[in-house]
Amino acid sequence: MRRRFAIAAALSAAACFTPVFAAGKPWWSHAVIYEIYLRSYQDSNGDGVGDLNGVTRRLDYLKRLGVDAIWLTPFYPSPNADFGYDVSNYTDVTPEYGTIADWDRLVHEADKKGIRVLVDLVLNHSSEQHPWFKESRASTGNPKRDWYIWRDGRAAGEPPTNWLSIFGGPAWTRDVRTNQWYYHIFMPQQPDLNWASPGLRAAMHGVVRFWLDHGACGFRLDATPYLFEDLAFRDDPDPKAGPPAWIKPYNAGRAENHEVLRDLRAIVDAYPGDRVLLGESATATIEDLASVYGAHHDEINLPMDFLFGNLNKLDASVFKRQVDDAEQKLAGEPPVFFFSSHDHSRQWSSFGDGVRNDQIAKLTAALTLAPRGTALIYYGEEIGMRDMPDAELNGAPLGRNRPRADDRDKARTPMQWTAEARAGFTTGTPWLPVQSSASIYNAARESADPDSIFRWYEDMIRLRRENTSFAIGDYTPLEAGNSKVFAFARTAADGSGALVVLNMSGLEEQVSLSGWPGAAPVVRNVLMASPAAIAPKAQDFRIAGFGVLIVSFDCAIFHRRGLRVSSVCAR
Ligand code: TEU
Ligand code: CA
């Protein structure tokens, strides 16, 4: 690790190296990664659309929040059928969002602040407007024909299989030019790339190197489960019922994906610094998730845990099972917890009870930030942004900057920087309206309010970084003696640590802790509490509705990995 650090520093590569305080552990294994929906973060030129220079302008805010890395949603040239997830050139920046020079400047400025930048790599499909697809569709004999997935139809007007697209309708579209069908697991404007083609593979590897050479500290890999489909093109026996479209056995999670991911990991690992692959890798089970890290820890460093991320009900036993599973069944790899994204509802809305949403927002923040592993934050989550209410969204106009409405627009509204009408997002007309909640839920007000959601996130992230038990400690499952309460500990090597108690009910609950691997420890100080609370004197205590209590402990006689560990502090 030290040698790699030296190389990275010597080459003055981007800040992809691991800081010394976490020696032995790469930065990404206990990181906070902040997703920026670029279109909505910060407009710098008054056109109503967020851009790269806007992000550069907000780096001080991100530094204060304490994030280790940012993941930018796609900024490639794109016809915007799926706002950037339909790529028409993988090695350029669309003028809407800036230039390659703007990207280079962003990386350089972020590097100075110790913030890494991840590129969203859309691997599964390109735009139908990509020159590769234009060539591929031109004739059956075109050299790029096999860069996409073309098949004959079954009978007149019938697609090759009964497979369905995740976005609805058949996953095949007939092309009049050659009377063959091309496959698309998403929109017809997003033809799937064929990873079995050596030419396509080499071209995509070139794309990966292009961005690594431009200082990317890694990638968020889009839609990784769908790279291959059933090679025999068998009909799905159960196209409508059965598992949801996004984990259909003939279209997702195929064994052939692993080789593609291993190749990508090898390319990324060969670059100086600790660069990383963050995967959008939905799976049906925890075992499938474990396999995405690679049988030899050589595939995706950080596959997002959708088993956790898709939860939308506060249930202590469900969360305990999910987090315990992630600890016990992922071969010691860092779990990747998150709730919100540009595809999901915002957690303030999905978990809120309509009365105590702010308190619940602090609780859900602790659910992702207090366990071991890496956490994702979706922009605005840290200030309690909500899904835009239908009543506000329904009147939002379409236009040049918003050619069509999308179900997911409610979670993609402009970042709420200030209480002003355009929330500090733009001086022009925002492409999607600013929510009315911006008058109260905004970064300017909340950064000055010690009780705000923002300050809670800032403190939680600081705790993760500065407190050894959180930075490099283990996760120790506990029993709370109450099905409404989820409790665990984070423990350092000397047996000291922190106890985390999360009340998932709106009522005050009684807690009776057990399950310590040794004698119960002596509680010291409150590290964080919401609402304010005092440190419990015994293993039995009460916790407020939707309460979060994080207290330090020491003097534990603790057994770790079968060994008795005496604590260093005095009793
Ligand atoms: O998402 C892939 C994916 O599986 C999601 O589409 C998810 O199933 C769906 O949004 C549930 O509503 C990625 C991107 O995150 C998404 O924004 C893109 O639309 C999609 O790929 C296609 O590129
Ligand atoms: Ca702009």
What does this structure look like?
Strands 9-8-7-3-2-1-11-10 form an eight-stranded parallel β-sheet. The protein has helices at residues 2-10, 52-57, 59-65, 100-112, 131-138, 198-213, 257-269, 286-292, 306-309, 316-328, 347-351, 357-369, 390-393, 443-447, 453-466, 468-472, and strands at 32-36, 69-72, 116-122, 150-151, 172-175, 180-183, 218-222, 276-279, 302-303, 336-337, 374-378, 474-477, 485-491, 497-503, 509-512, 522-530, 540-543, 548-554, 558-560, 563-565. It has three domains: 2-126 and 198-461, TIM Barrel (Alpha-Beta Barrel); 131-183, Oligo-1,6-glucosidase, domain 2 (Alpha-Beta Complex); 474-565, Golgi alpha-mannosidase II (Immunoglobulin-like, Sandwich). Helix 6 packs parallel to helix 7 (257-269) and helix 12 (357-369) packs parallel to helix 15. It is α/β, with parallel strands linked by helices and 571 residues long. The chain starts with a helix and ends in a 6-residue tail after the last strand. It has 16 helices and 20 strands. Residues 82, 85, 122, 166, 186, 222-223, 246, 280, 342-343 line the site of 1-O-alpha-D-glucopyranosyl-D-fructose.
